[in-house]
Amino acid sequence: MSMPFYVSPEQQMKDKADYARKGIARGRSVVVLQYDDGILFVADNPSRALHKISEIYDRIAFAAVGKYNEFENLRLGGVRYADVNGYQYDRRDVTARGLANVYAQSLGTIFTDTNKPYEVEIVVAEVGAEAATDQIYRLTFDGSVADEHGYVAMGGQAEAVAQALKDRFQEGMSLAEALKAAVRSLEAQDSDRHLEAKSLEVAVLDRNREHRLFRRLPTARTESLLGENES
């Protein structure tokens, strides 16, 4: 008679975590960083159809790495949550913190209760009236939440990208400076890597706009920002 196969809960959790981490590291990176007029999102993403960066609500955006169908699920849930709460209560009641809590619960439950955890990492960011009131929350596959300041790198060789960002990031950078810092940091994963505007997905939450503060930057605009002061 064969012995039943037993795995301790600790081992099971560790295996799930390793599985999720590997899946996330296989993806291409995304960086989120503050600049003087708001929050910049840059993804190494040649696809025009599958977005890694999206608007969730008036002042709130979402960035993700990992399995597209899984983070797309989370994005849609976030949009529904924001719409329902904004409609039932007040648009100002929809915050990045509230959304981060909802995501933390969902991811935590999926991680604990299912055999396959989500292979995703996400950032929920909300732009404030000034840089001091910007909010950036990073959520990992098991529902952990970190309150970030300045910059975040996720996916791919995130540590190499984060180190490069640490060296380049400064408070109050212009959009062009922040975009260059982001792209150079994404390239730091591989010495031969050169990222062109057409292989990037770029968006901002611009605190100086009216109403909807999210906008995507077209390739031509990204190109001209990257070319600024490089004569």
UniProtKB/TrEMBL annotation:
CDD domains: proteasome_protease_HslV (cd01906)
Recorded metabolic or biological pathway in which this protein acts: Protein degradation; proteasomal Pup-dependent pathway
Entry's localization field: Cytoplasm
Domain of life, source organism: Bacteria
UniProt xrefs under SUPFAM superfamilies: N-terminal nucleophile aminohydrolases (Ntn hydrolases)
Pfam family name, one: Proteasome
Keywords: Cytoplasm, Proteasome
Activity: how regulated: The formation of the proteasomal ATPase ARC-20S proteasome complex, likely via the docking of the C-termini of ARC into the intersubunit pockets in the alpha-rings, may trigger opening of the gate for substrate entry. Interconversion between the open-gate and close-gate conformations leads to a dynamic regulation of the 20S proteasome proteolysis activity.
UniProt feature coiled coil, ranges: none
Chief localisation class: cytoplasm
Subunit (UniProt): The 20S proteasome core is composed of 14 alpha and 14 beta subunits that assemble into four stacked heptameric rings, resulting in a barrel-shaped structure. The two inner rings, each composed of seven catalytic beta subunits, are sandwiched by two outer rings, each composed of seven alpha subunits. The catalytic chamber with the active sites is on the inside of the barrel. Has a gated structure, the ends of the cylinder being occluded by the N-termini of the alpha-subunits. Is capped by the proteasome-associated ATPase, ARC.
NCBIfam families, alphabetized: 20S_bact_alpha (TIGR03691)
Biological role stated in the UniProt entry: Component of the proteasome core, a large protease complex with broad specificity involved in protein degradation.
Family according to the record: Belongs to the peptidase T1A family.
PANTHER family with a match to the protein in the record: PROTEASOME SUBUNIT ALPHA/BETA (PTHR11599)
Protein name, as recorded: Proteasome subunit alpha
Lineage: Bacteria, Bacillati, Actinomycetota, Actinomycetes, Streptosporangiales
Name of the encoding gene: prcA
